[in-house]
Structure formats: structure tokens, C-alpha cells
């Protein structure tokens, strides 16, 4: 993506272990995503929860990295996204922002960190920005959360809205189900429009029919991102463990597996274990001589 950014008129600080990677001139900004929509280009987003995933995906040209609250299921082993805390999200965010030099890094506001009031949403977002060093936050919820989006944006924090299937509400939605079928499609469009009008820089849609997602993409001027929302959105996102085939078991219909990392790791672990047991590792090449 094109970047004609003026260098900061002040020092950006030197990178330290406690700092995120210094912004490069080519850092993806929210306006680059807007330009992609305006110019009919697409961009890719992947989740990342640690420094190596961030470094690899960033180096591979993925434009947006998401520290999803899906870290609850994909890293911490919970059954849902509900148990993950803001402190845990901040820890993962710090690792990802250290690894990403170019991508726009977005972190999820986890369940319980914004629902009480717009002020709670602002406070939690400030912590993700200040301690997690992310560049934007993502928030699940429909038009009822427009005031919260407005308040967070007023604080100078870019907000990505997340509508359609919102995993934090899976118990009230009755499980993992496509949202917006039939007449309910109107509600998805209304949610997206209200949140974009409240200042969201982007609208992410999860598990909505492709025609509804296409309608949303037409109805809002900001870029859209889909996961299980067809191909009309400006961007697409997948959980990296699904995309790379790390996770075992049944996959959602919208997942495409682009590699079989689980087999690669299994083979590596087996080969290592075999060599340790038969005494061939470590050999002279991997030993120090006196
Ligand atoms: O938490 C997450 O990974 C997400 C994506 C599925 C969009 O919200």
C-alpha cells in the first residue's frame, strides 16, 4: 500500500524490549484501508497472539494483525472467548506489537471490558493502546453500542466495529449461528450503518449471508472485513491457527486451510523424540568441545 507519510517532527524513541517496533515509513494506517475501499482494492487480516506469528505475518505482507479475544480458545484452551481478561489481552498485544513493523495492529476489547458504560469502554481502550501499544481496538456489538464507539473515537482511538455473529454473545445468540438470514439482514445493515456513523473506521462482519455483507459494504463508506461473510467485503480475516492448519478437529465452513502446520510440527516432534531416544541427537555438530 502506498504511504506518503511525513516523518514525525519529533523523535520516535529508540526501540527497547519494552517498546513496540518503531513505526516504519510504510506503517499501514487506517487511511490506507480506507484508500483500499475507495480504490476497489482488498486487504488481508490475520489474528496473531505472539511475536513470531506477528513477525511472520507482517513480513508476509498481511496488512492488519488482530489480537483477537479468540486467544481464549486458540491459546489459552478455553471453550469460548468469554473468560479472557483485559490484562491477558494486553500481554498478548505487547508481544504482537513488538513483532509487527508494518501492519496495523488491532486488539479486541474482551467481554466485560466495555459493556457497563461508554466510560468503561474508553478506559479499557486506553489501556490497550497505552500498555498493549496497539493502534486500534475492535468491539463487538450492534447499534446499541454507538455511544461507546463515539466516546472511544472522541478519545483519539480508532474503533473497528464487529457485527453479525458476535462470539461474546454466543449464549444469548443460541450458539455459533449465521446471523442476518431473511428479515434479520436489515438489522445487520442498520447496526453497521449506525456504528460507521458513530465513527468506526471499519466494520467487520462475522457469519452473515454473502448478500447481506454485500449490502452492508454498499451502505457504509468505510472499509468492511468479512469472516464467513462472502467475498464482497474490502478485507478478509481468519484465525491464524485455522488458516495454517494448526488446530485439529472440525472447521467452520468459512475456513480455508492454507497449510498443514499441525503435521509439520508433529513430524518434527516425532523426529526429535526418536533421535533423543536412539542417542543420535545431540551429535558432535550440536555439542561443545573442551
Ligand atoms: O477474536 C477474533 O479472532 C475475532 C475474529 C474471528 C474476527 O474476532
From TrEMBL:
The active site is at residue 206. Its main location: cytoplasm. It catalyses: (6R)-5,10-methylene-5,6,7,8-tetrahydrofolate + 3-methyl-2-oxobutanoate + H2O = 2-dehydropantoate + (6S)-5,6,7,8-tetrahydrofolate. Keywords: Cytoplasm, Magnesium, Metal-binding, Methyltransferase, Pantothenate biosynthesis, Transferase. Mg(2+) binds at residues 69, 108, 140. Binds 1 Mg(2+) ion per subunit. Its EC number is 2.1.2.11. GO terms for molecular function: 3-methyl-2-oxobutanoate hydroxymethyltransferase activity; magnesium ion binding; methyltransferase activity. Catalyzes the reversible reaction in which hydroxymethyl group from 5,10-methylenetetrahydrofolate is transferred onto alpha-ketoisovalerate to form ketopantoate. This is 3-methyl-2-oxobutanoate hydroxymethyltransferase. The lineage of its organism: Bacteria, Bacillati, Actinomycetota, Actinomycetes, Micrococcales.
Amino acid at each position: 500500500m502506498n504511504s506518503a507519510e511525513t516523518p514525525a517532527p519529533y523523535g520516535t524513541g529508540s526501540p527497547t524490549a519494552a517498546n513496540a517496533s518503531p513505526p516504519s515509513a510504510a506503517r499501514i494506517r487506517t487511511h490506507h484501508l480506507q484508500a483500499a475501499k475507495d480504490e476497489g482494492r482488498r486487504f488481508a487480516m490475520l489474528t496473531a497472539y505472539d511475536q513470531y506469528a506477528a513477525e511472520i505475518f507482517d513480513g508476509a505482507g498481511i496488512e492488519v494483525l488482530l489480537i483477537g479475544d479468540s486467544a481464549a480458545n486458540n491459546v489459552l484452551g478455553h471453550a469460548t472467548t468469554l473468560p479472557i481478561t483485559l490484562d491477558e489481552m494486553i500481554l498478548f498485544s505487547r508481544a504482537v506489537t513488538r513483532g509487527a513493523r508494518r501492519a496495523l495492529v488491532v486488539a479486541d476489547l474482551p467481554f466485560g471490558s466495555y459493556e457497563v458504560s461508554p466510560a468503561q469502554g474508553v478506559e479499557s481502550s486506553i489501556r490497550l493502546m497505552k500498555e498493549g501499544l496497539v493502534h486500534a481496538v475492535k468491539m463487538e456489538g450492534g447499534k446499541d453500542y454507538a455511544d461507546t464507539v463515539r466516546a472511544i473515537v472522541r478519545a483519539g482511538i480508532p474503533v473497528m466495529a464487529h457485527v453479525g455473529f458476535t462470539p461474546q454473545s454466543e449464549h444469548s445468540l443460541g450458539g455459533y449461528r449465521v446471523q442476518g438470514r431473511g428479515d434479520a439482514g436489515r438489522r445487520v445493515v442498520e447496526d453497521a450503518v449506525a456504528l460507521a456513523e458513530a465513527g468506526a473506521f471499519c466494520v467487520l462482519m462475522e457469519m452473515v449471508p454473502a448478500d447481506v455483507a454485500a449490502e452492508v459494504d454498499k451502505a457504509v463508506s468505510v472499509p468492511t472485513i468479512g469472516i464467513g461473510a462472502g467475498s464482497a467485503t474490502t478485507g478478509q480475516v481468519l484465525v491464524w491457527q485455522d488458516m495454517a492448519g494448526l488446530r485439529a478437529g472440525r472447521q467452520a465452513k468459512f475456513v480455508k486451510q492454507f497449510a498443514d502446520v499441525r503435521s509439520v510440527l508433529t513430524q518434527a516432534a516425532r523426529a526429535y523424540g526418536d533421535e533423543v531416544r536412539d542417542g543420535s541427537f545431540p551429535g558432535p555438530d550440536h555439542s561443545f568441545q573442551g
